[in-house]
Amino acid sequence: MKLYVVRHGQTDWNVLHRLQGCTNIALNSTGIKQAHILSDNIKDLKIDMIFTSPLDRAVDTANIINEHRNLTIQADNALIERSYGLLEGVYGHEYNKYLYWDYDKNYSDNNVEKVQDLFKRVYDFLDSIIEKYNDKNILLVTHNGVSIAINCYFKGFPADKQLLKFILDNCSYVEYNSNEIAKN
């Protein structure tokens, strides 16, 4: 199975460096353009199924990618962005992102979803789709935090445990192969 992981298009909060989490922020005009460009760039990829986060920015990105494919898009809560609790909406300089992304500390004050809980949720989802659809090529439209967990599932943790080095740009994608799993 090939798995294509797409981060949603740009939102106004991305531009402002505000923490979105589970807050349902729509794509902005740039994000819509990015999704159309990505759709054109991946038009030759063989994709059998599309799963998306249920948040509008991901659903809208998935719908644009799917405009010429006519596949069924399945929303799955496992692909929703990490909940940042009381930090949702704060600006990037107002919190210590490295503290919240330290896997060993598993920090969770302010009702932030623990990073280990996020990874378990994503790993369980990946285990399930690989078991059910191993003969399919699947496109996932999701969020930055989920894409970090997916990267670690396939590539393992970096030696320095700096998870934030795996940030995907808006509307970029990464390809993985289900035969190459290194989950820790």
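[next item in queue]
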Amino acid sequence: MNLTVKGRNLALTDAIGAYAEEKLGKLSKYLANGSRCEVELWTEKNPSIADNQVVEVTIFTKGPIIRAREASPDIYASIDLVFAKLERQVKKYRGKLVSRSQGAHKEVLVSEGFNILEESEESEAETSTPRIVKTKQFMVKPMAPEEAALQLELVGHDFFVFTNSETNETAVVYRRRDGNYGLIEAQT
């Protein structure tokens, strides 16, 4: 796996770079040889943010792009947290590949650098694929995006589906991490 470590608003010392490479290099046993990993470390300049040491990792595989971001008061702790999150994601990704493969496909995965192991220790809940457990139907009312944002606040959900009265298309308004709102508009 090709690993690149970059620093932004942070004095990237050799010790921090080596720690990130050592820790995140352990993920290579789960990924194919052609995978690329970009690690970006930075310090938030806002003094009101307690968890100001941020680590963001993006892994480019032959399949999906795997990304994780963690923040804490200590850069080493942030690296540990992001490693734990990525390890879960990569194992889940690898598990899906293994569960989809049958017979001859297993040899293809092994030749691409994936380790196919019997993992009986893992619970079935971790290896099973997500499924739809609840279905809900509701009326989609035409409204402006600003009104939809107000409705989102009233219902207390993470997102709100509505018909945009300006375009007559289905849209979704959602709360972003920074406290603002995002708007997803469907195009037909």
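[queue empty]
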